[in-house]
Structures are given as C-alpha cells and as structure tokens.
Design a protein that fits this description.
heterodimer; A: alpha/beta; 4-stranded antiparallel sheet; about 35% helix; globular; B: alpha+beta; 10-stranded mixed sheet; 10 strands
C-alpha cells in the first residue's frame, strides 16, 4: 500500500519564550491509501491543531507535511486553493453548510470554486446522494433538514470532487447517537467499498471504534496507537480497548496499562 | 476603566464603520452650508436688491433643516441599529461579568456621544472652510469679485448644526440602547440568526410584483399626463401609488430572483452563492431597498428640478441694454448726465417711443383689427401655441405702436440687421416673456403671407419676422403684442402723445477690467445723485442670480442628503450582514476558495445590491423628471426634448460617479472584512 500523507516531526508552538504552548511537539506518522485513521485525545491535546495544519488552515512551526509527494507548506495561491478543494475534503463538526443555499447547491459549491463543469459531476452527485440517502432533501435549505441530513449533505460536499483524503473534525459531535451511528456506517462503507482514505479527529470512542487504526495524542505528542485486528476483532472488542486507553489519558504515561 | 472602554469602543466603531462615519461628516458639512447660506457673499449682495425674495428663502431654510433632520434621524437610527446588532454578544458578556444595565446604557450613550463630538470636531472646520470656498467661487463665477470678501464663521449655523446633529444622534441611540439594555443576557449572548420569515406561496410574490409594476405605471401615467398636478388629493394619490408600487415591486422581486437562481447558466466561480446571497438581501431588506431607491429617485428629481430652474432663470434673453431711464426724454437725460459729468459713462443713449393709436373721438378702442391673421390662426392645426395666440389676440383691439428708429437701434446693439418698413407696413412685436409655445414661430408662418390688417380704418400689411428683443432693460414695460411702424406713421397714429424710454449702454472703455455687475453697481451709485428715474440691468441680473443661487443651493443640498442617506443605508446594511454571515465566507475559504474568488463574489454582490435600487430609481427618474418639468415649470421654459435629455444624461452620469465611489468604498471595506475572516496565519 502507498502512503498518501506523511507527517514528519510536525511542531506547532503558540506564544513566545516563557508563555509558549506546544500544541504539537514533533508528531510523525503516515496515512496509507484506503486507510480509516482516527485521532483521539482529550481537549487541548492538539488533535484539532493537527487537523488544521493538514487542512492548511494554520501554518505549522516546523516539520513537514507531505501529501502525495508534495510538501504542502510550500503551496501558494492557486495550488493551495486546489489542494484545499480537490486533494482534501473537509467534514466539519458543525456541518458548515451555507444556510442560504439548497442541499444540491451546497454539494456543488466546490465545483463552482474550482471551475469543474457540473455535467461531469452530476452523475457523481446522484450516486453520492443516493448512497448517503439525501436525495429527498437535495432541493431543501439546511434549515429544513435534520442534523443527520445536514451532516450527510456536508459529507457529499466533501466527497464530490473525489478527494485523495477526507479530513473529518468531530463529525459526530453535533449529532444524536442514532444519526451518529448512521453517519459512521456510511463513512465505513465509503472506506470499504470505494477505498476512500479518511482521517477523523474525535473524542467519541463509539465513533472511533469504526476506524482501522487510532492514534492517541496527548500534550502534542503521540502517546499511543491502536490497530483493529480486522476481521478477527469485533467492533465491540475494539471499542472496549479504546475505552481502556481513554481511561489512561489525562493521567500521564505513568498510568498506562 | 469605564472611560477607557468607552473611548476604545467608540474608536473601534469609527474604524469598523468608516463609511457611516464619513456619511455623518458629509451631512454635518451639508447642514452647516445650508445654515450659513445668509453669510455667503452672493446672498449678502442679493439681500440688498432682492431683499424680499432673499428673506423668503432664508425663512424656508429652517424648514429644509427640519426635514433633513427627520430623514437623517432614520439613517442614524438604522445604521446604529445594525452596529448594535453586531455587538450583541459583546453586550451580553459585559452583563455576564456583572455590569449593571444602567451602566451599559450609560456606556452606549457615552460611546455615541464621543463619536458624535469627534464627528463634529472634524466636520465643522471642514464645513466652515468649504462654505468659504463655495462663497468665493460663486462670487467669482457671478462676477461679484472677491476683493470685498471677509472670512466669516456663522456661529448660529455652527450651533444649529451641532445641536441638531447631537439631538438626532442621541435620540436614536437612546432608543436603541434602551432596547438593548432591557434584553436578557441569554438572548444577547446567543448569536441571533436572521429571523426566518415565513415563506409565502410564490403566487403572492408574483402578484405583488405585478401589482407593484401596475401601480407604478399608473402613478407615472398620472404624473406625466398632468392629472397629478391638478389638485392636492390627486397629487397625494399619485405619490401614494408610487410609494406603494415601489414597495410592492421590491417585495415581489424575490420571485424573479428565485427563478433566476434556479435557471442560471453557471459561468463564474461561486455564481450560485453570489446569487443566493443577493436573494437573501433582497428578501430580508426589500423595504429598505425600496426606500433607498425612492431616496435616489428623490435626489435625481431634486437635481433635475434645480438644473431646470437654473436654466429657466439664467439669461435666455439677449442682453443688449444696460440702462433704461423712464419719464425723461433723451435730451433731458443727456443734459442731466453732463451736469454731473457722467456723459462719458455711456456709449449709447437713445430713446424708444411707444404709444397708443389716437382716433378722432379720442377713443382708443377698436382702432385695430386683424381678422386675416385670426383666420389664418384658426386654420392652423390645433396646438397650445395656436390656442393661446387665439385667446390673447382676440382682445387686441388697440395695441401699442413702437417707433421704428428706436427699435432699429436695439437691433443694431444686438448685432442684427435693421428692419425696413414702407409707409403702409408694420411689424409685429412680442415681448420675450410672451414668446412661448413657439408662438413667434407660428406667427412668422402667417407673416410670410404679408397679411392685411386695419389700423384706424387704414390698410397696413404685416411684414418681416416677429420681433422679440426687449425694448427696455428690465421690466419698465412688457408688451404682449405691439406693432412697429415707421417713425412718421408713428407720429401720425399716436398724435404726438407717446411715452419715451431712454435706453443707455455703458461705455465699454469704462467697464474694462470690471465685471458687468460691478460696473453697473458703481454707475448706479453715481446715478443716484442725479435724481434721474432709471432701471438697470442689475435688477434683471439680480433676479436671475437669485433664482440660480437659491435653486442650485437648495436642490443640490437636498440631492446630496438623499443620495448620502440612500447609499449609506445600502452600504452599511450590506457590510453588517456580511459580518453577520462571516461564517459562510470562512466555509468557502476552507473549501478551497481563494481570497480573490471570495472578494470577487462579494464585489459582484455589492454591485448588484447597489445596482438594483439605482437602476429602478433611474428608470423612475426618466418619468419623474418629465412629470416634474411639466408640473413645475412655466410652459415657455419647459425646454426642448434635447435639453431634457442632456440634463438626464448629466444627472445619470453624476449618479454613476457617486455610486461608483460608494461601491468602491464598500468593496474596500468588504475586502477588509474578508481578509479578517481568513485565518491570519495563512495570509496569501
């Protein structure tokens, strides 16, 4: 399998000298093609900073982020926009749908940003919409949709340009358990059937149990890693393992296992 | 701490709302200018001659002042409301931290007072300087000369401006901060989403659009046909129909917008987004847009009315004579002038004689009859000019006679060829004030046939074109219809009993280097010692000047105020709602939109947002200005279609410039907003 994303000793410091906060303090890992990777950690652990660095929302202090052989810190202008739009698809905790656009228009927004002719993607739109079960709400406005529908529309928007990597930031954070489960199942399906590569930040152990691999971050460093032993290990068993690690978090490495 | 917070906040709102602040400055300047009108050189000069008219105008100024205060109040109220809405969260935090409501209320008042005072401190000096500049420029333009200019600051104007401005500003903020301070913390802290108004069925909007267009069409029809001007209730009805038509039109506009949003070719980046944003503005702000559009229309109409009035009252008559001495003969005048050593002041002195026809019985009536002319008129196609002529000339039974030699001298001064008359010939004379509706042209058609008329029973033939040069310098006498006859015939017809007007022209050597206005003023002072009864061209000029100055000052003032208010409301509203929906722009950026793309989209929104009300106003103005011309102006001065077209084009060009400036400013502010929304670490 091929590496899609390589993170090399990534650092992000805020502030100066005495008051310096090390949000990320030398993180290194790889994401393989077709992987479903989870990043877990308590709040303030640096997981959102990591995701924001990959999404080029913030600039890291040091280290390298290499996406399909290209170092993204050096991207500028059009290339940067193209990276944001086409290499990665971003799924937000609060959906971030534009409330004055219909579902369809929201999904097609990246096309209009990157001047992709709509005709090409209409087929993909139909396929995604029917897979994500949002065909009925395509012509509705976000205010007329349920939370689950909104997040699935947002998922379709993240996927419409067939990005190399999907970044999901607490995608179940604003959903009830039923809708969260439905979304996670759809994401697993996408990963399994379409070989979509997903990098998901979450602190919901339940959602994390859908991943194939989980990195635990604490105080800006990788503190533990879990791999689900597919297909031998059941999701339930994996979930329990996650809970155990989560219980150790916050207490420092002295308490681990 | 409290005062620090107040000063920081007020500084911040000035920075964030530069557009609004600039508009406040302009309105302060406009306020002062209109208030200090009586201190302008031109007005001081005119007050000597046209004191009645000037004092009437000055009496009207408080009215304009009050009117603009009311309109400006709404601007300030709405603009401040948008600003307050944006700071709701901040107010919530203050209250959460234990600030007392009364203190918050006080803080808001203090903040506003501070920025008002700043606006006055910056605005008033600009206003004083600008008003001096305008005074000097107008004085120079009309030829008053600027030597006598004294720097003047009108204290009352300053006080009135400051008082009025502070009053409306405080009232608006009192109401608004009262409202804010009464709200619960919870509602303040939660970002209030745009209240989702209940969507009505599409039919309602389409019906509103159609009704709006129909009402507007009806209002236009009434205005142009003149029905609107026939009585006050009808005028009221027309205005009401226009107003409700505009409101309904903008209310219904969303139906068209919705249709476009669905059926638009996707070309530019973010086209759907741009359009949806615009649609949202139009839906939530249809009334504000309608009002802004009406204000722009009002500004256009004011401007057009001003231009028309200026045009009407500025020198359409040819200026040939500088002085007319009444009640004296030419010899008397020149004798008196020599006595006072003033004969060199004049290069020409000649008299023009006019008198009635004497009959044997000393009966003035029925001395004249021109049935052939009347018949020729009746045979002409119906027109306003023909009907007026038929009506006026029907009573001409004893017209004035004018002696040919005097009139020929006036022609010579006007550099026109002299007219020649045989003994049994006469030429028609009409004062320029009566030569309206092309009446002179109509008569000229008849004159070509040399119609026969009877004076005291004898046959005369009318010949030459109708003459319309003024026979005196101002208004000693105006003749609606007279006949120019050879001098001998004149003596004979009038029996030697006539009045004589002595016309004079100033010696060009004497007025070299001076403006005509100054030359006449000086000569008047000298003539006043001689006891001669005279009128000078100064009165004529003064009257024209007064109308020009008054009309242009007031209409420009109103037009500026209306334009400022309309544009500021549109601009501030756009910027506030852009800040409110900033999250959307952030999402776009995260989806990979470049700064440029987002700015372009915002720019397109701004252009449309300003464009829609402006275009509606321009279309309405084409009709409105025409209606205004037909209703306000005297028929003779309505001008030809080309002049009206020219005025309209000039007006629209000017409007275009103003809109361009505003769009530019709002775009700049919008780009700044967007840049702030991009995460600062990631500047491109």
């Amino acid at each position: 399998m091929q590496n899609i994303l390589e993170i090399e000793s990534l650092r992000k410091y805020y502030g100066k000298n005495n008051s310096q906060t090390k949000a990320l303090d030398g993180i290194t890992f790889q994401v393989m093609q077709g992987e479903f990777l989870g990043i877990m950690g308590s709040s303030g652990s640096g997981k959102s900073t990591l995701l924001n660095c990959i999404a080029t929302v913030i600039k890291p202090t040091g280290g390298r982020i290499v996406m399909q052989g290209e170092e993204i810190q050096h991207l500028k202008g059009d290339k940067l926009a193209q990276y944001r739009g086409q290499m990665i698809g971003y799924l937000f905790q609060n959906f971030e749908l534009l409330d004055n656009l219909t579902g369809r228009e929201n999904i097609l927004l990246p096309l209009s940003l990157h001047r992709v002719p709509e005709a090409e993607s209409n087929q993909r739109l139909e396929k995604l919409a029917s897979y994500l079960e949002v065909v009925d709400v395509l012509d509705k406005f976000p205010s007329q949709m349920s939370g689950g529908q909104k997040q699935r529309i947002a998922a379709a928007r993240a996927l419409i340009l067939d990005p190399a990597l999907i970044l999901a930031d607490e995608p179940t954070g604003a959903l009830d358990s039923k809708n969260a489960k439905a979304l996670m199942e759809k994401m697993t399906g996408l990963n399994r059937e379409q070989n979509a590569t997903i990098l998901m930040v979450t602190h919901d152990s339940n959602a994390a149990s859908y991943c194939k691999r989980i990195l635990f971050i604490q105080d800006g460093v990788i503190f533990h890693e879990l791999r689900r032993d597919v297909p031998r290990e059941s999701q339930q068993a994996f979930y329990e393992r996650i809970l155990k690690v989560m219980a150790q978090l916050g207490g420092g490495s002295a308490n681990v296992l | 701490m409290f005062f620090k917070l107040v000063s920081r906040n007020s500084k911040r709102s000035r920075k964030e709302n530069g557009l609004f602040f600039a508009s406040l400055l302009i309105s302060i300047v406009a306020f002062y200018m209109i208030q200090s009108l009586s201190h302008q050189d031109v007005m001081i000069f005119l007050a000597k001659m046209e004191s009645d008219a000037v004092s009437k105008l000055l009496m009207m100024i408080p009215l304009f002042y009050g009117l603009t205060l009311i309109i400006l109040f709404f601007l300030i109220y709405f603009a401040s409301k948008f600003q307050m809405e944006r700071r709701r969260h901040e107010f919530g935090v203050y209250l959460m931290m234990g600030m007392r409501r009364s203190r918050l209320f006080l803080m808001l008042l203090a903040e506003d007072f501070r920025s008002s005072v700043t606006a006055l401190l910056i605005g008033l000096p600009i206003a004083v300087l600008l008003s001096e500049l305008v005074s000097l420029i107008t004085a120079r333009l009309v030829g008053l000369g600027i030597v006598g200019h004294r720097f003047s600051i009108s204290l009352t104007a300053i006080l009135m401006t400051a008082a009025g401005f502070l009053f409306i500003k405080l009232t608006a903020v009192l109401i608004l901060s009262g409202k804010i301070a009464r709200q619960e913390i919870g509602t303040l802290l939660v970002e209030a989403p745009e209240v989702g108004k209940k969507e009505k069925p599409q039919v309602v909007y389409v019906a509103a659009l159609i009704t709006g267009v129909l009402l507007l069409a009806a209002a236009y029809g009434m205005a142009i046909s003149g029905i609107a001007w026939s009585s006050v209730p009808r005028m009221g009805m027309t205005l009401l129909m226009g107003l409700s038509g505009t409101l309904l039109f903008f209310f219904g506009l969303r139906s068209v917008m919705g249709f476009f949003a669905g059926h638009m070719k996707k070309g530019k980046e973010l086209q759907t987004f741009t359009f949806r944003q615009l649609e949202e503005h139009v839906i939530y702000r249809s009334n504000t847009l309608a009002i802004s559009s009406l204000l722009i229309l009002a500004a256009l109409c004011c401007f057009a009315a001003g231009v028309a009035m200026v045009q009407t009252h500025s020198g359409s008559e040819q200026h040939t004579l500088d002085y007319t001495f009444t009640d004296h003969s030419a010899e008397e005048v020149s004798r008196t002038l020599s006595e006072y050593n003033l004969e060199s002041q004049f290069s020409e002195l000649f008299d023009i004689k006019i008198g009635f026809v004497r009959t044997e019985e000393n009966d003035y009536d029925n001395s004249f009859q021109m049935e052939s002319v009347m018949q020729a008129l009746r045979d002409m196609p119906k027109s306003r000019g023909r009907d007026t002529l038929l009506n006026n000339l029907g009573y001409e039974e004893s017209p004035y006679m004018i002696s040919l030699s005097g009139y020929n001298q006036i022609l010579a001064l006007a550099k026109k060829p002299a007219i020649e008359l045989k003994e049994s010939q006469a030429t028609v004379y009409i004062d320029p004030e009566f030569a309206i509706y092309d009446m002179d042209q109509l008569l000229n058609q008849i004159m070509k046939r040399n119609p026969e008329v009877q004076i005291r029973g004898e046959k005369y033939h009318l010949t030459n074109e109708v003459q319309t040069l003024s026979i005196v310098t101002d208004r000693s006498i105006t003749l609606s219809f007279a006949l120019i006859v050879p001098d001998e015939v004149f003596e004979d017809l009038t029996g030697g009993e006539y009045s004589s007007y002595v016309n004079g022209v100033l010696n060009p050597d004497k007025i070299k280097g001076k403006s005509l206005l100054n030359a006449i003023s000086e000569t008047n002072q000298k003539l006043d010692r001689t006891g001669l009864v005279y009128e000078s061209y100064l009165q004529n000029m003064g009257r024209q000047l007064f109308y020009v100055v008054a009309a242009s000052y007031i209409t420009i003032y109103l037009a500026i105020i209306f334009l400022i208010i309309a544009n500021t409301v549109i601009g501030v509203q756009f910027l506030t709602s852009q800040q409110k929906t900033g999250k959307r722009y952030q999402t776009l950026i995260q989806l990979g939109a470049t700064y440029q793309t987002v700015c372009d989209s915002a720019g397109r929104q701004i252009r449309w947002y300003f464009g829609i009300p402006t275009v509606v106003a321009v279309i309405s103005s084409i009709v409105g200005v025409r209606a205004l011309f037909s209703g306000l102006l005297s028929p003779g001065t309505q001008g030809s279609i080309p002049t009206m077209m020219l005025i309209s084009v000039a007006m629209i060009l000017l409007l275009g410039v103003v809109e361009y400036i505003y769009i530019k400013a709002v775009k700049k502010a919008s780009n700044r907003n967007i840049l702030k929304l991009m995460v600062p670490e990631r500047e491109e």
